[in-house]
Automatic annotation (TrEMBL):
Coiled coil: none annotated. PANTHER family: ACID CLUSTER PROTEIN 33, MASPARDIN. One of its GO terms (cellular component) is cytoplasm. The keyword Cytoplasm applies. This is Maspardin. Keywords: Cytoplasm. It holds the Pfam family Abhydrolase_6. Signal peptide: none annotated. Its main location: cytoplasm. It comes from the Bacteria. It is found in: Cytoplasm.
Length: 264
């Protein structure tokens, strides 16, 4: 794929239009590539909207049906799970492969818990078991996240991204925080991370679950990655040598191959 991140986002939104659903006072938004075959739902982590998957959507969207979802400012994983079910009802989607990244990899497990018949496969990408996995990182200190104003948290993250070394990922994150993600939405996701508790055992076959992590993930420590794998000992475990916390953007070739295999 060529062109700047700005060009890629423009191309994405020229190809596909955002759709919306209001449910329980919250707006859900998504891009549906309407490709062939069973659907795959893509859920971003704490930073950004569904277009965080811009590389995947542009690369595979005509080949397979991808639905990239922007979920609202809700921190409770069960409320998010029920909201996703409403979206699937709205678009008459009986089941899908559910792919979560980071915080969404956490709450996607609760979707599988409550709606097992609607999960063809589950990909838990760059995830964690509960908030204790990240508590040593000052950015995910529970007292800090719960005590800070949404606007302050958002501004701190925007400045942190702006001061990071220039890269395509840095540019994408800055666009997301500056133009597309509200302070309330970002804060809700962080609140969901720090308050997270382990998901109960899932009523879906282990063969339908993939645990994806990256050796160079700067946010999820090695011990947390291993703890999540131990929670799903019979699942498929995929560890990429590189991809950081965003393999869908930083290691597109291997990430897309994994997605295609999970759909089969």
């Amino acid at each position: 794929m060529t062109g700047s991140v700005i060009d890629q986002l423009a191309e994405l939104e020229e190809r596909y239009s955002w759709r919306t659903l209001q449910t329980d006072g919250h707006e859900w938004r998504w891009l549906d590539t309407a490709g062939e075959g069973p659907a795959t739902i893509l859920l971003p982590g704490s930073v950004g909207d569904g277009a965080m998957f811009v590389s995947t959507l542009l690369s595979l969207g005509k080949q397979v049906r991808l639905i990239a979802i922007t979920y609202p400012a809700i921190s409770d994983p069960e409320r998010l799970a029920h909201g996703l079910a409403r979206v699937m009802d709205h678009i008459a989607l009986a089941s899908a492969t559910i792919v979560g990244s980071s915080f969404a990899a956490y709450w996607a497990q609760f979707f599988a818990l409550h709606y097992p018949a609607r999960v063809r496969a589950l990909v838990i990408g760059n995830g964690f078991t509960d908030g204790s996995d990240l508590a040593a990182n000052p950015l995910f200190d529970r007292a800090y996240v719960e005590g800070i104003a949404s606007s302050t948290l958002h501004q701190e993250w925007l400045e942190r991204v702006r001061n990071a070394p220039a890269s395509a990922l840095q540019q994408l994150q800055e666009i997301m925080l500056d133009k597309r993600q509200s302070p309330e939405n970002l804060h809700a996701r962080f609140l969901g991370v720090v308050a997270s508790v382990p998901c109960p055992a899932l009523p879906i076959p282990a063969s339908a679950i993939t645990i994806l992590d990256c050796d160079d993930d700067p946010l999820i420590p090695a011990a947390a990655r291993e703890r999540l794998r131990r929670a799903y000992p019979q699942a498929k475990h995929v560890s990429l040598k590189h991809g950081g916390h965003y393999p869908h953007f930083l290691n597109t070739k291997e990430y897309e191959a994994l997605l295609l295999s999970s759909m089969s």
